[in-house]
Design goal:
Largest sheet: 5 strands, mixed
Radius of gyration: 20 Å
Bound molecules: zinc ion
Number of strands: 8
Strand order of the largest sheet: 1-5-6-7-8
Strand content: 5-15%
Structural class: alpha/beta
Number of domains: 1
Order of helices and strands: EHHHEEEHHEEEEHHHHHHH
Length: 300
């Protein structure tokens, strides 16, 4: 199974030439973007072979046959300071990683985190989005049909307004997907630094604390609580439950599928997934409380 799949509006596979062309044009834009010498130096130093090897091992561990891991290299990573990019972003349709390098520098100074470690963590976070399942529908924008993209567990839908411009109309499981991404990125960053011989436990623990209390803190908490519950309900270790979550992330599992919903119904409070789907931080806090108060019915 391919990690990146593209479809027309009618769900038929898109002509692969169109995606090649999209990526080629994006490649031209990438070479023209402003280069920051510090970022270039950090990318020069980054060992993409080690990272790719780590992703392949993880895919294998979750039981996915390893043919490819869409780890993006230097030619698909560029600097773009834009409010939408923040610290970093992955573009599903053009297959590129954007790093808001000025934002990164400010973030590391403000939090007093090690710059090398912080940069690696941000990059590995975005590489996780790149390696997790991508599906795009209707990138050609046929017949005013909505444009949809899937990244890992999250789905985004845009639909044309009266002028024909596409606007976001729905995002589901966005924060859940970010929680999974951040947890995995932190673990992989620690492992990456260990393999490159650069791990400083104290500095890394501090970065972990800052990241876990950052913008995705609630998402991380909910994914951790969810993993614990999954493990408890099935009588397996948290590591095994986590492998299941990672498998779904790499394969693009639809967690609203009927058989899943039925199964979740037994281990989660009523309507939990429906609420989680669109939950913001405030709603996630309520969901966490609900989860703690609902006793777990053990699988027979
Ligand atoms: Zn992300």
């Amino acid at each position: 199974m391919k990690s990146r799949e593209f479809f027309n509006a009618d769900n038929a596979p898109e002509d692969p030439i169109l995606q090649e062309e999209r990526e080629r044009l994006a490649g031209n834009r990438i070479t023209k973007r402003e280069k920051v010498s510090e970022m270039e130096a950090r990318l020069d130093r980054f060992n993409f072979d080690i990272l790719e090897q780590m992703f392949k091992e993880r895919l294998q561990k979750t039981g996915i046959p390893v043919a490819e891991a869409n780890v993006l290299r230097r030619d698909r990573i560029s600097n773009l300071n834009h409010p939408l990019v923040g610290l970093g972003g992955y573009n599903t349709s053009t297959n590129e990683i954007l790093i808001g390098f000025t934002n990164f520098r400010n973030y590391a100074s403000r939090n007093n985190t090690d710059r090398y470690f912080t940069f690696a963590e941000i990059l590995i976070h975005e590489e996780n989005h790149a390696v997790s399942k991508t599906r795009c529908w209707n990138l050609k924008k046929e017949n005013n049909e909505p444009l949809s993209t899937q990244s890992g567990y999250s789905f985004n839908v845009s639909a044309p307004d009266e002028s024909g411009a596409y606007e976001g109309v729905g995002r589901v499981f966005n924060l859940f997907n970010e929680g999974v991404t951040e947890i995995n990125a932190l673990d992989m960053t620690e492992e990456y630094l260990r393999r490159t011989g650069d791990l400083d436990k104290k500095k890394f623990t501090y970065l972990r604390q800052v990241t876990e209390h950052g913008v995705y803190s609630k998402a991380i908490e909910i994914v951790q609580a969810f993993t614990k519950r999954l493990a408890g309900a099935n009588g397996v270790s948290k590591d095994t439950a986590w492998d299941t979550i990672m498998r779904g992330y790499f394969e693009g599992e639809d967690i609203l599928r009927e058989d899943f919903k039925e199964w979740f119904g037994e281990i989660l409070p009523p309507g939990f997934m429906d609420k989680l789907m669109r939950a913001d931080d405030e709603e996630m806090t309520k969901l966490l409380e609900e989860l703690e108060q609902t006793p777990l019915k053990k699988a027979a």
